[in-house]
Specification:
about 230 residues; mainly beta; Beta-galactosidase, Chain A, domain 5; eight-stranded antiparallel sheet; five-stranded antiparallel sheet; 2 helices; about 40% strand
């Protein structure tokens, strides 16, 4: 997720509320080590940053849907870590353009993140989506979009999925180089990714099975009651 400093970074200034994805083939937490080495675009055995989100929605970025158009914000200005594991990661980002607080939750061992955007001003419809590239295979259904495409540097194949409650979906559209799901608030959705060199997925059918299983989890959430 892009912070304020990236807007003026000399190497590659980027302004977007996109979601970027790094691909790895290890269970080890590698992000800090990769940053320290400053060589994370090259795979030295654990994976790399092969994906280029740019100013698109990347893998699960969102925005507002106004008058049939996608409206996006600049980079986040504030961040807050609520939980840092080992069972669950939760953090929040604040985007002042929309007065939006975005909360991302990821459980250990899972490929799907829960996204929730809360807006201080009234919002009727929002959209979340995936960057479109010519070589991608697509699955587009009510409440589900999924791509499967070649990774840069001939590093296998990669997939991204966005899952939204079908009851809140308004339409599925293409806009500004993205495949989007447009939905009514509240803005809650799930984003997952897969790499066929990670050890979890061999082909797109494996990812589709994981998507279908996650949809079932969302439809039938675990309920806990505490009684005296």
């Amino acid at each position: 997720m892009y912070g304020a400093a990236l807007e003026t970074w000399q190497k590659e200034p980027l302004t977007s509320s996109t979601v970027d994805v790094w691909l790895k083939r290890t269970r080890r937490l590698v992000l800090n080590d990769w940053y320290m080495a400053d060589d994370y675009h090259r795979d030295t055995g654990e994976g790399a940053d092969f994906y280029s989100a740019g100013k698109s929605r990347g893998c699960g970025g969102n925005g507002l849907w106004r008058d049939g158009k996608l409206v996006t914000s600049k980079n986040f200005r504030e961040s807050r870590v609520i939980a840092q594991g080992p069972i669950r990661l939760i953090f929040e980002l604040y985007y002042p353009d929309f007065r939006e607080t975005k909360r991302i939750t990821l459980d250990a061992g899972q490929n799907f993140n829960r996204f929730e955007s809360r807006y201080e001003d009234p919002v009727a419809t929002w959209a979340a989506g995936i960057k479109k590239v010519p070589a991608a295979q697509w699955r587009v259904e009510r409440g589900v979009i999924r791509n499967w495409e070649p990774v840069a540097q001939q590093a296998g194949e990669f997939g991204c999925a966005v899952i939204v409650d079908p009851a809140s979906v308004v339409e599925t559209v293409e806009a500004e180089g993205n495949q989007l799901i447009v939905a009514r608030t509240p803005a809650v959705y799930y984003v997952g990714s897969a790499w066929n060199r990670s050890g979890d997925f061999v082909e797109v059918a494996d990812f589709d099975r994981a998507i279908d299983q996650w949809i079932q989890r969302v439809r039938s959430p675990l309920r806990v009651e505490v009684t005296p």
